[in-house]
Amino acid sequence: MKKQTIKEVLQDYKKVLHHDITVYGWVRAFRSNRFIALNDGSTINNLQIVVDFENFDAELISKISTASSLKVVGEVVESQGAGQTVEIIAKKIIILGDNFTEERDKTILQPKKHSLEVLREQAHLRFRTNLFGAVFRVRHAVSFAIHSFFNQNQFFYINTPIVTGADAEGAGEMFGVTNFDLNNIPRDEQGDIDFAQDFFGKKTNLTVSGQLEGETAAMGLGRIYTFGPTFRAENSNTTRHLAEFWMIEPEVAFNNLEDNIDLAEDFLKYVIQYVLDNCKDDLDFLDKRFAEEQKSKPEKERAKEGLIEKLENVVAKRFKRVSYTEAIEILLNSKENKKGKFAYPIEEWGADLQSEHERFLVEKHFECPVVLFDYPKEIKAFYMKLNDDNKTVAAMDVLFPGIGEIIGGSEREARLDVLKTKMAEMHVDEHELWWYLDTRRFGSVPHAGFGLGLERLVLFVTGMTNIRDVIPFPRTPKNAEF
């Protein structure tokens, strides 16, 4: 008989009722030397194991404690107590792994005693808590739904390089990759680092985006998407930044800006609906946690909706589409701006919007997700299509409540002459991106795409408030533990 997960037993208990089965898991609690709460990670719910201690060796019973791992053989019966439909009357218990808490801090596996900050320091153990079990099961569901959406819509999954010589963003905040002995770095006659002697024969970095390479694939395959790790060397310790995170970047030949916005809205709604349909138990738990967290906040800072209600509303409501110019007018004339409540006051058209401005538009003014489009060309990347007004580019950002920007994208500049002019204005080296320019030389077409940070979407869906709590092992300044 194949091994059954606890989720399978609880979902299909009628198939195994009054049969002997074998289950495996870790002890979440052991009450009165009689009731074991067993969990195997497949679900947030525990399976109750009933132990008649008269039928078991006292030494075995004494070794069972929180975090011990067990193999249990027993009969599935209808539960006599509250809180569970069925339980197992244990006939055989084998301890697979003892819990040696005496060798370390005895509270290490008592998560109720720990803050999220402490649990980050024990990232290798936090998977065993209800909270992080729920978060990472939801993260899996989000990732699966992303692949499912693109597969259903005839996109091809492309793996773009992690090591690259191109800076897609033009920001320069990249991690260098080298094979040099850092104590003996070769230099040329001018005293500069001689990258010609390095492993790749040139200066290389960890990628900040797979977009440019993705565009080349879209020029032959039509619809593609990337889903992989990306890296930013920002020295930032905010709750919104990671040095290593996962990005999803679709690129579609023959799409314009409006098509791109439609794709982003359909994509986000599909993924969120998938989580609502397939993660009910975990979302119920996270919804209750979210409600408790809101109670501790000042009344005016509390969310207007519960977590599940928020997710359902995002799926139900059409995203509001607003030009950057209209958004600036709204912000300029807002009470918050006039009374100096913004940390970054809006003074004129051309301002680079901050998270506080994005959240004001979403949470207070429109009260629904917002798509901003047609940004000033000066504050956007070189590859974005220049509009006819010569002032703005065909860029778009999707803004979500509690998060701000969750997707950023654009129609790309498909005209070779315009692209070369923009690259010169922004000091982007044509020689480094000769291959990118070739895509505009040989059968160039209008095309568009966007980038979504996986962790930001998981942050939104789970109601967590720190991005370090939705990635298994966060990489941040001065922190590369585990």
TrEMBL record:
One of its GO terms (cellular component) is cytoplasm. SUPFAM superfamilies: Class II aaRS and biotin synthetases, Nucleic acid-binding proteins. One of its GO terms (molecular function) is nucleic acid binding. Keywords: Aminoacyl-tRNA synthetase, ATP-binding, Cytoplasm, Ligase, Nucleotide-binding, Protein biosynthesis. One of its GO terms (biological process) is asparaginyl-tRNA aminoacylation. It catalyses: tRNA(Asn) + L-asparagine + ATP = L-asparaginyl-tRNA(Asn) + AMP + diphosphate + H(+). It is found in: Cytoplasm. It is an enzyme of class 6 (ligase). InterPro entries: Aa-tRNA-synt_II, aa-tRNA-synth_II, aa-tRNA-synth_II/BPL/LPL, Asn-tRNA-ligase, Asp/Asn-tRNA-synth_IIb, NA-bd_OB-fold, NA-bd_OB_tRNA. Pfam families: tRNA-synt_2, tRNA_anti-codon. Residues 136-472 form the Aminoacyl-transfer RNA synthetases class-II family profile domain. Its EC number is 6.1.1.22. Homodimer. Belongs to the class-II aminoacyl-tRNA synthetase family. This is Asparagine--tRNA ligase.
